[in-house]
Automatic annotation (TrEMBL):
Record's protein name: ABC transmembrane type-1 domain-containing protein
Species, as recorded: Flavonifractor plautii 1_3_50AFAA
Record-annotated membrane-spanning stretches: 9-30, 99-122, 134-158, 178-201, 236-257, 284-307
Cell compartments where the protein resides: Cell membrane
Keyword set includes Zinc-finger: no
Pfam families: BPD_transp_1, BPD_transp_1_N
Topology within the bilayer: Multi-pass membrane protein
Length: 313
């Protein structure tokens, strides 16, 4: 078991190393000199020289990479070109907002998918099962930015029930204001996760119920709720993997959803930093998002090893 865990951790670090190489290479692939993506156009020659020394642009490429990696490990990504704030401060604030959106979307998607998936697997010919199929196909098929516009058109423009932009109402920074602004983005961001999880829960539970294990449990006289607990427990490792991947996807920032709703998350920050050529923010945001995604997948792998004895071998 220890060997398997160490192997998973080693693969995670290897993946992160590859990500750092790709993120660093992005700066080198920009048109012109890399320093032009960091230094303002009206900067003095003295400031340019200071930044050249700071980032090591006069050093060989491999030395620049290791200098950048060393700074990144210490959390030093420099200052934002747009507003001269610390890059880590900008990204941390956006990441906090994305975490709120990801949690809201996860609660919506995971709870509803378990309810629909389990019920439709037990009642495959019911109207509820048909509704579950529609949710599953629709959630996967409709792009989240299209769904965002549909939700805004219905609930914000036509019915005027919910706000369409921002994270809070101006001057009202209460929890109720946050929830009102969170509902539509959470539904739009979690729709694809809902579709994937609904189909996965239904197929996993249906496949588990067709096994001889359930027949044996019924022969022993167990009640249907007790059998359901056994079915869900045996389906848990598979569902855990899918749920972890989907939460990592949501934490990566639903860029189009955050842009449409002006939600100040990591996706919106990446979008804005690309269009303003604020490359230090772009690099830091992509690297931190990738690190979070890899970390979540590593955690899910370790939880699966604990939950499923077969994987310990």
């Amino acid at each position: 078991m220890v060997r398997v865990i160490l192997k998973r951790i080693g693969l995670a670090f290897l993946t992160l190393f590859g990500v750092t190489v790709i993120v660093f290479a992005l700066l080198q692939m920009m048109p012109g000199e890399p320093i032009d993506s960091i230094v303002p156009l009206d900067a003095s020659e003295e400031l340019r020289q200071v930044i050249i020394d700071q980032y090591g642009f006069d050093q060989p490429l491999y030395m620049q990479y290791f200098m950048w990696l060393g700074n990144a490990v210490r959390g030093n990504f420099g200052n934002s070109v747009s507003d001269n704030r610390l890059v880590l401060s900008v990204v941390s604030e956006a990441l906090h907002n994305t975490l709120i959106l990801a949690l809201g979307a996860s609660v919506f998607a995971f709870l509803l998918s378990i309810l629909i998936g389990v019920y439709s697997s037990y009642r495959p010919n019911s109207i509820f099962s048909w509704i579950g199929t529609v949710f599953g196909i629709g959630g996967i098929s409709i792009p989240n930015y299209c769904l965002s516009l549909i939700l805004i058109g219905i609930f914000s423009v036509t019915l005027r029930l919910l706000p369409s932009t921002g994270m809070y109402t101006s001057g009202d920074y209460t929890f109720s204001s946050l929830i009102q602004h969170l509902i539509l983005p959470a539904i739009a961001a979690g729709a694809m996760t809902l579709g994937i999880m609904t189909r996965m829960v239904r197929s996993s539970v249906s496949e588990m119920r067709s096994r001889s294990l359930v027949t044996t449990l019924r022969a022993k006289g167990l009640s249907e709720p007790a059998i359901m607990r056994h079915v869900l427990r045996n389906s848990f490792p598979t569902l855990l993997t899918v749920a972890g991947l989907q939460f990592g996807y949501l934490m990566g920032g639903s860029t189009m959803v955050e842009t449409t709703f002006s939600w100040p998350g990591i996706g919106l920050i990446i979008y804005q930093s690309i269009f303003t050529s604020d490359f230090p923010v772009t690099q830091a945001a992509i690297l931190i998002v990738a690190a979070i995604f890899v970390s979540i997948n590593l955690l899910i792998d370790l939880l699966r090893i604990v939950a499923d004895p077969r994987l310990r071998k």
